[in-house]
Amino acid sequence: MRLGKITIFPIKSLDGIDLAEAAITAGGILQHDRIYAIFDGEGLVVNGKRTPRVHELRCTFDNDVREVRLWEEGGGAPEQFSLDGPAAINRWLSAFFGFPVALRHEPKAGFPDDLTAFGPTVASEASLQSVCRWYPGLELENVRRRFRTNLEVVDGPAFCEEALFGEAAELKPFRIGRVAFLGHNPCQRCAVPTRDPASGEVTAGFQKQFMEWRRQEIPPWANAQRFNHYYRFAVNTSIPAGEGGKWLRIDDEVVV
């Protein structure tokens, strides 16, 4: 396997950026990945798990991830904001969601869903193509946006990434290029992949059908005991301390 795609999501739950290379921070994340998150007045993250309205929010970033352009899908012209001073963007986002929200920043460790497996998620292009096959009419880019994986590997069969985790008590070591990783488990999915990534519209029967196909296509190299249910896709990882400052690059080899 080798690394075929790198995607970061500077604002948690919003659109990503495809990169040719990415640095590892001292906190063990891809630089600029999920380093901003939107919080409501009770201190809870505003994400696609809570409100499908997130799916209607589009954004692009400048090269340094210092500015962002925001607009509503199918709505008005994009508006540009500095990420260094959040007052203006907080007003815009609060108006968009219809309740007060605020953008927070954590550049070293970001805002991961899992505080133990806080590293990039890994899937293979072949696995994503298999999901396209399960749902005729869904194109590859649509499936990518549903699952929001950071690292996509190529040159392997479908679900080859499931060689990157082991037993329940095991953190399985592997490398991508010069960067050491620990594979934790197959990622448990939420409601987000069941929805169209642009509109938030639910794809009828998505989760039930996904679980049935996943059950049928567990590869022999995967530890099937790690699947207490089959609504799991991609591999959760962490990056050990000391890897900060290293770089991942497209075409880096994956070594288990």
Word description of this protein:
- By secondary structure, this protein is α+β, with helices and mostly antiparallel strands.
- The mean pLDDT is 96.
- It has a 4-stranded mixed β-sheet. It has a 4-stranded antiparallel β-sheet with strand order 13-12-11-15, with no helix packed on it.
- The protein has a domain of 143 residues.
- It contains 4 helices and 15 strands.
- 16% of the residues lie in helices and 28% in strands.
- The longest helix is centred in the middle third of the chain and has 11 residues.
- The protein is globular.
Keywords:
single chain, 256 residues, alpha+beta, four-stranded mixed beta sheet, four-stranded antiparallel beta sheet, 16% helix, globular
Concise structural overview:
With 256 residues, this protein is an alpha+beta fold. Helix content is 16%, strand content 28%.
Spans with pLDDT under 50 lasting ≥5 residues? none
Class inferred from helices and paired strands: alpha+beta
Strand content: 25-35%
Main sheet: which strands, in order across? 2-1-10-9
Mean pLDDT, nearest integer? Answer: 96
How far apart are the termini?
A: 10 Å
Order of helices and strands: EEEEEEEHEEHHEEEHEEE
Number of helices: 4
* Proportion in helices: 10-25%
Strand element count:
15
Q: Major sheet: size, sense and barrel closure?
A: 4 strands, mixed
Shape: globular
Radius of gyration based on Cα positions: 18 Å
